[in-house]
Amino acid sequence: MIKIAVLDAATLGDDLELSPLDALGEVAVYQSTAPCEVAERLYGVDVVMLNKIKLNESNLTHAESLKLICIAATGYDNVDIAYCRESGIAVTNVEGYSTDSVCQVTLAMALNLATHIPEYTRYVRDGIYTKSGVANRLIPPYNELAGKTWGVVGLGNIGKKVAAVASAIGCRVVACKRTLEEGYECVDIDTLCRISDIITLHTPLNDGTRNLINRDRLTLMKKHVIIINAARGAVTDEKAVADAVVEGRIGAFGSDVYTAEPFTEDHPFHKIRNYDNVCLTPHMAWGSVEARNRLLNEMIKNIKAFYDGERRYRID
């Protein structure tokens, strides 16, 4: 019987029903796994399922039974793929399951920050509107997004979906990716930073995208620019972004991802978390109910495919 271990089930949500895994074999579900516990929990396991746990030579060395690593995500920077390849351990991810979910949250952030929704709702919630005697309030002023330039960094499934939505609401869309793509107005990253009113990040984290939005590129941007990171925390220089917010050099900032998750009190974003022009969410953009169910179903298909001798979403 196949032995399966789920190392960080809590990151998948308490409402996700994992019982379909029981049809595949003997399943051990751990809500969380500390780094010092990983090696022990891999011992004797054939298949491991994980979301955020880091796997590398330090904890895979003695996982002699391990045949397959199933990553509950599209990104796989938490797994040492080269080591797995050398050790004969198959690795799978899942693509496309969260496209609609991340696009929805990205758009929600953009609309929230552009329209100052927190300020307006607070005005009503706190009773100031009732006491004002004035039928409407238009402070702070807000602008329409139609006619603005929306810069999309990364044109994978999510980037293309965001580009389509941005275009649908009347924005001029410019995109930055490594290779030109027909049907899109592609520009280099510096040009995108200079001309965009909204910049949303949807690129994988690698050596070429680490600190892509850095102090120098922040100086190129319009003072009213809205920046939203829906990629990976390290795609931005987090301290440089926080400083730009504090100093009023950018209009607004939203992020669902961080270099440390959850971020600690000494993280640069801790000091800006309550700013009205900042929207920080707890890495939830990928996790709609529908997306998480698609994810689990695709992971089950990956396991079945592996044992049927097929390659499916293999990244090793």
Radius of gyration: 22 Å
Query: In oligomeric terms, what are we looking at?
Result: single chain
- Proportion of residues in β-strands: 5-15%
Q: Using the coordinates shown, work out and report the CATH topology of the largest domain.
A: Rossmann fold
Counted beta strands: 12
The termini sit apart by 24 Å
Say which CATH homologous superfamily of the largest domain is assigned. NAD(P)-binding Rossmann-like Domain
CATH architecture of the largest domain: 3-Layer(aba) Sandwich
Number of domains: 2
Description:
The protein has 316 residues and is of the alpha/beta class. It folds into two domains: 3-97 and 289-307, NAD(P)-binding Rossmann-like Domain (Rossmann fold), CATH 3.40.50.720; 99-280, 3-Layer(aba) Sandwich (Rossmann fold). The protein is built from eleven helices and twelve strands. The strands form two sheets. The chain has a seven-stranded parallel sheet, sandwiched between helices. Strands 2-1-3-4-5 form a five-stranded parallel sheet, with helices on both faces. Helix 4 (99-115) crosses helix 7 (157-168). The longest helix is centred in the last third of the chain and has 19 residues, at 289-307. The chain is globular, with a radius of gyration of 22 Å. The mean pLDDT is 96.
